Amino acid sequence: MRALRPGTGLLILVLLPVILLASCGRKGPPTLPVYEQPLAPSELTAIHREGGIFLEWDYPSRKRRMVKEFSIMRSGTSIAATRELSYVDSDIKTAREYSYKVLALSKEGVPGEGLREVKLKVLEVPSAPAGLEAEVVAGGVRLRWSHPQEGVLFNVYRSAERGLSPMRPVNRESITSTEFIDNPYMAKPVFYTVRAFTGGPERHEGAKSGEVEVRPEDFVPSPPEKLKAVVAGGKVLLAWEESPEVWVMAYRVYRALEGEDFVLIGESRTPTFIDGEVLEGRVSYKVRALGPAPEGPLSGAVSVRAE
Q1: Which of the listed residues 73, 93, 121 is the one where a domain comes to its end?
Q2: Which residues are paired to 205 by β-bridges?
Q3: What sign has the CA pseudo-torsion 94, 98, 103, 105?
Q4: Would the pTM count as exceeding 0.70?
Q5: Which domain-ending residue is among 215, 247, 266?
Q6: Tens of pLDDT along 149-187?
Q7: Considering only 27-41, 87-101, 133-147, which range has the smallest mean pLDDT?
């Protein structure tokens, strides 16, 4: 057997760990994502209503899978844990002040940074608004109600399901009167309630009002007005006044040849239409606006003589 040259054994010992690491198939430094500190929740809000303090916060959906749960801290002590983005603390007493913070915990229980602390002193809440009514108007849905107290503010809540109590109101600013106009997207029925409150961002809300339902079929547009028709270049150009209802979605145009009934010939999202079909003789047109569900009444007719 041929003897190894002096120093060869030492070289093999030095290179062996390098060869083993190269053969393990790793293409980068090892990571421990489960031990990473999770992001802090954001936008923590606290609302006092119906015998409890309602907490709500936001968290990026793409990061939720890395979070085991959220820890609810009150005055520095953990009082609960939840997988949801909200929590209700029912163990409260009037005239006491409470401070809250929410921590995200990783799958391995590693806590993230705490969300900013919010403080709220429990105060008496106003009574519920009464006599809530809804009316569909040109600007949307007009809500009206009454309240016996002065100096209180109001929030309007809209839900797609009967009986639900959303946390976030429709109105961006506090309502100082007993009237509000909402302009919802009306693909399905919606349900409205109103609450009176005092305070600022950490508000003290009373019980909700009675509930009113508004349906898509309640939105019936008025008939378009001042329909005009002009023959130009072998085409008939139609124009009319834009409907006053902000929730009108489109217009349908109807045509009647002389001695015949009106038939639908097209739609337009603007108050104009071009009839490019080659026609002869007297032609009449009518237009109707289209709401979230029903059509409105037909406009008056306008006639031209096509040549």
Answers
A1: 121
A2: 49, 197
A3: negative
A4: yes
A5: 215
A6: 988 999 999 999 999 888 899 999 999 999 999 998 888
A7: 27-41
